[in-house]
Amino acid sequence: DVVQLLAFLETTQPRKVAALELAAEGIKRTQFLHRLQGEITKRGVIDVLRKGVSHGPEHLDMYKLLPTPGNTAAAEAFGKNIFSVTRQMRYSTDKENALDLVIFINGLPVLTFELKNSLTKQTVHDAIVQYQTDRDPKELLFQLGRCIAHFAVDDAEVSFCTELKGKASWFLPFNQGWNSGAGNPPNPTGLKTDYLWKQVLEKHSLANIIESFAQMVEKDDEQGGRRGRKKHEQVFPRFHQLKTVRALLRRVQADGVGKRYLIQHSAGSGKSNTIAWLAYQLAELRNGVDP
After folding, report:
1. Are residues 222 and 214 in contact, defined by beta-carbon separation less than 8 angstroms?
2. Strands 215-221 and 172-173, bridge-based pairing
3. Alpha-carbon distance 273 to 235, whole Å?
4. What is the Cα–Cα distance from 141 to 74, expressed in whole angstroms?
5. Cα 199 to Cα 206: distance, rounded to the nearest angstrom
């Protein structure tokens, strides 16, 4: 979204925008946009948001980080980020192809959504099938790293996928759980899935996910005789992982160190990632006392 991108850059880095001649349409802006697109293709949108982009003699921030407590300058800078939502976003030269919803940060797409509801007799499973069959993974927006995750949502359940591969696209549940099982609890004040936009996608929460959870990882590709070659996988936290890490961070801040807690995970639920995310964020905690 060039309008949002330039609005963010002009507000936060006007000198660099002037030096690179980005304000006006022309070859200079086009060259920068090509550079930005190339960096997202090579590094992924997560890394570009975190580390910015170098172009010519300048390095441009694509995003302003969450502030630490008491840092008013950082809080003001974070407030200049532009979180935007585009409905019915057309992503292809085929004008009929449109996504229900896309979330952008400073003009860069980060999350896509297909939305269903019981009134039309469609469910989250119809949204998943739509991603698997109607969304071509070769389209630029759906290529690995161009977005952080793709969400299938109805009024009862949520699922997500980090890489579209046609019918092989693997969607994981992003539900709160209910009665020691799957799904979401009844919500007396709204839809069962409103925690998604009221809590998880709230600006500070989404920023925290991008800064401290979402990542692109490199792994050995041992399938099909490709030993020695590398493959990339994008990681996004499941709801129980996000809840666990945030709950423990809150408890440590409230109770101090040296306490013991029990987290019950089922097999294959991502314990290793939960431990790693928690360890890194525990290391960054401060108690307000100078060392």
Report:
1. no
2. unpaired
3. 9
4. 31
5. 9
